[in-house]
Write a structure and sequence with these properties.
7 strands, Short-subunit dehydrogenase, binds NADP nicotinamide-adenine-dinucleotide phosphate, NAD(P)-bd_dom_sf, alpha/beta, oxidoreductase, 223 residues, Rossmann fold
Length: 223
Amino acid sequence: MSAIFITGAGTGLGQALALEYAKEYETVVLAGRTESKLQQTAHLLQKQEKKTYVYPLDIKDWHAVHQAADRLCGKFSVEAIINNAGYGAFGSLETLKEEDIHQMIDTNVKGTIFVTQAFLPYFKKQQKGTILNIVSTAGLRGKVNESVYVASKFAVRGFTESLIEELEGTNIHVKAAYMGGMDTPFWDGNNHIKDKSRLRSPKVVAEQIKRLDDGRNKIIIES
Ligand SMILES: NC(=O)c1ccc[n+]([C@@H]2O[C@H](COP(=O)([O-])OP(=O)(O)OC[C@H]3O[C@@H](n4cnc5c(N)ncnc54)[C@H](OP(=O)(O)O)[C@@H]3O)[C@@H](O)[C@H]2O)c1
């Protein structure tokens, strides 16, 4: 049974990507920390008669991530992963809380690395796999009051570009998407974006990603 594994699939872009990419896989595995959010996405997919599998997971936990890959790859033929889960905290550098700095680096950077590292041996064994990393335009250039978030996204870009080189000539395809602001729960709890009405819907962005996911390894969607 072919399956796609998506992190942060309970809300925002992750949910929209789950609905968009479901067309190509028999099963969509939905990962994130909050099971109730994942169940909401599962419900939407089930209405489209898609098979779903909800897997509560904190991608910051190396052991839990590796256990997830072992379990899921024993159950499904996981052919693709989307590293979408992310966290942002904004403000001038000196105002950022220690906990927020850890959350950004641990979730955006280490989480993406852990998930990729855990699934890669299975992709190599089956000689097939796709890795899509959700970055941001914050992975393309620096931004005011986004220093650590931008640093985390530059790291994911560097990780992605290196893996593209490392896996060249194999049937494992690595790519990243770089998009501007979207209207998602990402912005709840901070006032970095003053006018959210200008942000695009995650559904529209997910459709654009899927449309541009044509073999290129850099999908750029500027707002
Ligand atoms: N919104 C924007 O303007 C924007 C623009 C460019 C790029 N992005 C990127 O797009 C991606 C999706 O963000 P979004 O806008 O859709 O925001 P979102 O709705 O807040 O989604 C983030 C998801 O990640 C999950 N998550 C966070 N920490 C996690 C962890 N440690 N383990 C597993 N799951 C975790 C959250 O669920 P739980 O809390 O339940 O775990 C949530 O479902 C992120 O990588 C973000 O950096 C966003």
